[in-house]
Amino acid sequence: MSRRILIQPVTRIEGHAKISIELDDAGEVQSARFHVTEFRGFEKLCEGRPFQEMPGLMSRVCGICPVSHVLASSKAGDMLLGVRIPPAAEKQRRLLNYAQVLQSHALSFFHLSAPDLLLGLDSSPAERNIFGLAKFDDDFARRGIRLRQFGQRVVELAGGKKIHPGWSGPGGVHRQFTIEQRDEILGWIPEAIASIALALDRLKGLVESFDMEIQYLGNFPSLFLGTVSTDGGLEFYDGRIRIVDGGGNSIAEGLDPQRYFTYLSEASEDDSFMKSPFYQPFGFPQGHYRVGPLARLNVAKFAGTPLADRELREFKQRSEGPVCASFHYHLARLIEMLFCVERIEELMADAELFGENIQAKAQLNHREGIGSCEAPRGTLFHHYWVDDEGRMIRANLLIATAQNKQAMNFAVEQAARHFLKPAADGGFAEGNLNRLEAAIRCFDPCLSCSTHALGQMPLVVEWTGPDGIVRQIVRD
Amino acid sequence: MESYAKSSATEPRVLLIALGNPLRGDDGVAQEVLALLAPRSNVFTEAPLDILPEMAAALAGFDLVVFIDADVRAVAVRIEELGSPDTQVPVRSPLTHAGDLVSLVGMAARLFGFSGRAVVLRIPARNFHLGEGSSPEAMVWAATAARELQTLLLSNVHEQSAVGPS
Fold first, then answer.
1. I want to staple A251 with a disulfide (CB 3.0 to 4.6 A). Which of A61, A77, A105, A243 is the partner?
2. Residue in B27, B103, B112 closest to A131 by CB
3. Which chain B residues are within 8 Å of A112, Cβ to Cβ?
4. What is the DSSP code string of A170-212?
5. What is the pTM of this model?
6. Number of residue pairs across A and B with CB atoms under 8 Å?
7. What is the C-alpha to C-alpha distance for residues A117 and A108, in angstroms, rounded to an integer?
8. Predicted ipTM?
9. Which residue among B24, B97, B128 sits closest to A13, beta carbon to beta carbon?
10. What pLDDT digit, counting tens, does each position of A390-426 carry?
């Protein structure tokens, strides 16, 4: 008898989603899909608003990565104005982006995934959380919390507040960076680097024990897309798009992010509110690609900071070509955290960061603006069309998590096929169901979390027979 | 929630955390309570949208932490203790990524040495629709909550005085 397994909602990700798994008569996995079940409609609700309001509006897309949306939106506004922003403004924007990537990655690694990694995927669900982690290794948990605190503090210091900072807009930023802010930030750097180094050591020491997860939690060749600097280095704020395939072949170099629509398209599917972007020349779904930390490290030739470069060289030795195991998103995330802290430290010594000229003034000069940057989870594009008065006619947001959607589907299906074997009683081991979720958590999907959620979000596994009747519901 | 000025050594250090989104109607009522309180040198305030893990670090060093929160289930203003520092049990599903106050306080105690008293002041609230400002009913509860809070702060001063400066 064929069965359908529904895991809803997926836990320890940002937002609401479910996993459905179709089993055949023999109990083998036929297919598995990752669905996004929430709809927020930001592109629609901004219509008619002045484009100057867009960074503030767009920051509300997400409570975890608001800085990315503010940055992409501000850059789209820069294009509408037709200005090149002053160096001080650009460096402040870079600083905030590094800080945000740091805090977001810290949340993903230490709070959401470390319980799986350190306590084990089969450990008791009652312990498999940040609280259980605190009992298991209080120093590690404390460092994780403080690392995120550091990132949030930098955002708060420079951007005015931790969540939805409104310091940046079309043409630049709104306030000057100060020496006092620098001094506080510098005080955090040694601890931040030590904490990331510790986490890197721990994870690298554990990798061998996750051999099966490395093989089956989304290990497949795909395209990888990310922003690189003009010389091919790791770049989060401004650069060119590079795409490589699973064999390490360069598919596209030097693509202009402001022309993304000439090489990326979006497909809609019936089972999810999330769109499915793909690389146009390869078509859909063959043109699916991965973005985010793993993709960025795969497309970058080097990091550009000493400690991150050392780790990146070691990382690249894990595979002859690109690292294709999605499990290594975790490792890539830590390397990027190191990179961010090093870049933050560099910026603190950069006199241009403190410049007084932080705004390029101009009237509306163009009717179409596109901004892009690297968000924690991957490349982000904001595309705006405005009327003669600067009111928004239309917006298109190409969100990083959506670009990983097909990859997440593949990861879930691969994990289900390998790990989801029914026990004698017809049920499934909880740890193996957790592996399906862990496959998703590798990507750290952010399905938007800025709403103040009410109520619980428990795990529900629903088994449905071919007649559509629910045979069993398991709640945690 | 990083740096706070030193208060008098004889006064308990108090942190008031007003949880909620002021753009969601009554969800912002906790901030209305803060607005009704007279400033004091030993009382520090924060107004985050939601609880965040890093708050655990910020609780350390305070003698009293009061979370103020709109509560759709409450029928009257009430103050609840958040357990001893040894409390370890998350009151929600351990699988959820939503945080809870008991876990947060427990984590503050375990990881950052918080040894003070933690309570939550719950305020009845019904309207969580989009829009600024709390409903008239919630504002009445906010005034009650502010009075309860004043009483709590005064009683805490007295308790502190009875055992001497910390």
1. A243
2. B103
3. 97
4. TTEESS---HHHHHHHHHHHHHHHHHHHHHHHHHHHHGGGGHH
5. 0.84
6. 94
7. 12
8. 0.72
9. B97
10. 999 999 988 888 899 889 889 988 998 898 877 777 6
